[in-house]
Records
---
Amino acid sequence: MKKRRFLRGLGITLLVLLFIVLVGPFLVPVPPAEGTRPVSELADPDSKFVWISNLNIHYKIMGRGEPVFVLLHGFGASLYSWHAVMEPLSQIGTVIAYDRPAFGLTERPMTWSGENPYGSQANEDLLLGLLDHFNVNKAILVGNSAGGTISMQFALQHPERVQALILVDPAVYEGGGGPSWMRPLYRTPQMQHLGPLMVRSIQNRGLEIIKMAWHDPSKITQETLDGYTRPLHAEDWDRALWYFTLASEDTGLTDHLKDFNVPILVITGDDDRIVPTANSIKLAGELQNAQLAVIQEAGHVPHEEQPAAFLQAVEEFLSTLR
C-alpha cells in the first residue's frame, strides 16, 4: 500500500514537473519591447542606407580612392564602434563602416525565405554584395571580435577580393553560439517563446559588458554609452538578437589557419578580458604572414580606447604592403 502511494505521488510529481517544463514557459508573457522607434528616427545626419541581399543596410562612408577599408564591428556593437578612427583612416583612402544584421540600424527581418539573414553565410554574402555595390575590387577588411571572424571567413571564400586583413581582438578560439549542447535547447518551442525576453537582459547588463571591454572604464563617456545603447531602441531589436543567437555556430576557423595567404595584422589590447590577449598572440603565431601589435592600456576595443596607438599600428602595417 505504501509503495503504491509512493509511486502515485512520484507520478503526480513527475507530471507537474513535466507540465512546468513543457507548458510553463508559454505562460510567461512576452510583450513587445518598450520604447522602440523606427530606424529613421535614430539615424545620424551622415547615415546612409542601401539595399543589399534584400536588406536595408545602414552604413557610413568617408574618404576616397584606394585603399578601401571596410570596417566590421563585433557582437553587441555597431558602426559607432569605429567613430574615433573613421576620419583618420579616410585621410588614407576610402572607409566604409556598416551595421551587420541584428545590430545597429540595419534592417531586422522577422521572416525570410532562403538563407538565414543572421547566419554567417548570409553575412559573407552581404559583404560581397557591399563590395560589388561600391565597385571595390579588393578591400582591407578591419574586423573587431566577431567582425574579425566574419572577415576571416570571407577571406577564405573570396581571397581575390581581400587586399589584407586587420583583425582586432578577433574571436577565433572562442567559438560561437555557446556550448554545442545548448543549441538544440535554443530551438525548442519553449525557448523560441522566451528567447526575446531573455536577450533583453542586455539592456541592464550593457554597462557591465562595456566596462569589461575597456581597460580603463573611467574613460567611458556618456556619448559612448549613448552610441552603444541607441540601437536598443530600434524596432524588433530583441527578436533580431534572438534570431542571431539561434543562427550562431562554431566558425571552424581553427582548422584553416594555414590556409590564409593575404597579409594580416592582428591587433589586441594588452588587457582584453573578453577575447584574452594571449589568444590573439597565439593566433598571430599560427597564421602565415601575420604581424602582431599589442596596444598598451587597452582592452577589447583598442580602436576606441587608444585610437592613436591603433592608427599607428595600422599605418606601420600599411607601409609593409606598398
Note: Residues 18-22 have pLDDT under 50 and may be disordered.
---
Amino acid sequence: MSAVVRRLSACLVGSWTVVAMIVTMAAQAPVINATVEHRAVANGLAGEIQAVVQRGTTGWVGYRVPMLRGRDWRLNTSASCCGRCRLEPPTELVVLARTEGKAIVELRPVGVDCDIDAGGAPLVWLDSVRPDESVAWLTTLARDRTTTNRRVAESAMTAIALHADRSANDVLVTFARQGEATLKGKALFWLAQRAADQAMPAITAAIDNDPDTAVKRQAVFALSQMPKDQGIPRLIELARSHSNPVVRKQAMFWLGQSKDQRAVDFFAEILLK
C-alpha cells in the first residue's frame, strides 16, 4: 500500500471515528454525576420502564425525544445544572422518572439546555425511544387519577404537550374533551400553544358546554394564549355576546391584557356608545 493510500485510509478511519463519537454523544443522557446503565428498548417503552420499576430500587429512568419548537420552552425543573450550557432554546425533551418502592413517584420533563446533575443517583438510560411510544406511555400516567399520583399525572400532561410528535395533538384533544377538570384545563392550555386548528373546537366546546366554571375560565384563558393572537376575534365575540357572565368577564379581562389593537377598538366601541 502506498503512503498516499495509507494516509487516505487513516483520514477516513479518523472521520468515521469522529462521526461515531458524535452519534454516541447525541444518544447519551445529558446527565452527569450519575451511575448510568444503558438499555435498548426491545420490548416497548412501557415494558422496559415497568421492568426497571419492578426492581424496587430508588433511582431514575430516562430518555430523550424531539421537542416541540417555535417557542422557548425552558422549564423550571428544580434540577441542579452545571457543565456546558447552550445559548439556543432546547430542541430535545428529556423525560426523567424517579422510581421508588416499585412505583414512579416523580416525573420531570426537562427541556435540556445544559447538563443535569443527578447527585450520584443511579440512572437507567433508554436508547432510541420512539416519540409515539413515549406519548402513549405518558398518557397512561396522565390518566392515573389516584391522589398519590396526581402530581405525576400533571407532569405527564406537560411532557406530552412538549413532544414534537403529532400523536400528542390527538391525546391533548381527547383530554380536553373527556379529562378530569384539572387535566382538562391543562390540555386546553397546551392545545392553544401548539395546534390552533385543533384547539378551537375543543375550547369552544368547553366554554359552551362544560358544567364546571373553572374549566370555562381555563378555556377562555387558553384563547388568550394562542400564538400570533389568533384567539382575539373569538375573545371579542365572547365578551360581546356570551350568555354566561363569567365567560364574558374573563374574555374582557384577557382582552385587556392582550394589548392588541382589535381589543382596543372593541373597548372604545363599548365605552363610546
Note: Residues 168-273 form a domain with the Leucine-rich Repeat Variant fold (CATH 1.25.10.10).
---
Amino acid sequence: MRAHPEIRLVSRDRGGDYASAAARGTPQARQCADRFHILKNLGEALEGVLARHLATRRKSQAQKPRAAPLSNAQSQQPSKLDPKEAELSQAKREERLARYQHVVALRAQGFSPTAIASQVGIGHATVSRWLSSDMFPEQQPRPRKMALDPYLPFLRQRWEAGCHTIAQLYRELVARGYTHSYHSVHEQLVRLLPEGKKNAAKGCDLSPTPLSSRQASFLFLRRPEELEADEQESLLTLRHLHPEIDLAYDLVQQFARMLRTRTGEQLDDWLEKVRASQIREFQGFVAGIERDKAAVVAGLTLPQNNGVVEGKVNKLKLIKRMMYGRARFPLLRQRVLHAL
C-alpha cells in the first residue's frame, strides 16, 4: 500500500488491525468502515438485549421450576472471553436456562415431550435430555458419537415386547450409554421397523413457537415492508414485551435507515438518543463507534464498501471447501485461476 500513494480511500471492516495497517500503509487515505459490518455489530448488541428480555419472559412463564441452584463454578463465564462476549454468553445462557425451566413446568402440567418441543421451540431430543436431568445441563463440547448398530438387538427386543414409542426407546438407549441424536434413532427405526411408532402427542392448545434472540434480531434489522404477515405479528408481540425492547426497535430502525440512505450526518443525534436510552448492551456499541467514528461516518455517507472483496472471499472459501481439505495450495491456486 505504501507503494501506491495514489490511494485516496480504504474500505475495511471494524477490526483494529485493519485500521492501524491502513493508517500506516496509506496515511494520506480516508478510511471507510464497511456498512455490513457496522450493522452486524449493532445486531450483536441487539441480540444481547433480546436474549436478556426473552430469558426474563420465559422465567415468568415457567411455573414451579425444578431447576437446582447452580454452583459458582457453573455460573462463571470462561476467563478467555472479553467482557462484551461474556455478557452476551451469559445472556444466552439465561435464555437457555429459562427454556429449561419452561420445559420442566410444561411437563409438570402433563404435556408430552413432543408437545413441549413444539411449544418451547426446541428439538424433541433436547426435551428428552433435559427431562432426564436432575438439574440444568450446562452446555458441554459434543462427545464423540457411537454407532447405533451395537444397540439394534436391544431395540428389536424392546419393539417386539410392545414398546413402540421412539422417545422412550431413545431414553433407554441414552441410559445404556448411547450418545447419538434422537433423529438418528428415529431414522433407523423407521427404516428397520416399518410398523412405525405410536403418536404420543395429543391435541392441545399451544401458543406459537417462540423465537430465539437471534431470530428476533433478524426481524428487528429487516425493512418493515419486507416482513410477511406472521413475521409482523411476531415483531409486534416482541415489541409489547417490554418498553426497552420497543425503544430498541425504534433505535435499530433509525440506524438502519441512516445506513441504507447514507445520511451519516445524523449519527451524532442517534448516538445521543442511544445514550439517553440507557440500554446497556447498546452502550458498548456506542463506545465502539466513538473509537472509530471518522471511518463509521464515511461508511454511512460514501458509496464505497467491501462488497466486491467479500464476494471474492466467499468464492475462494467455496472452492476451498469443495476440495474437502485433501489437496494442497498448488491445486487450490489452479482452481481459483480457472474460476476467475
Note: Confidence is low (pLDDT under 50) at residues 63-79, 196-208.
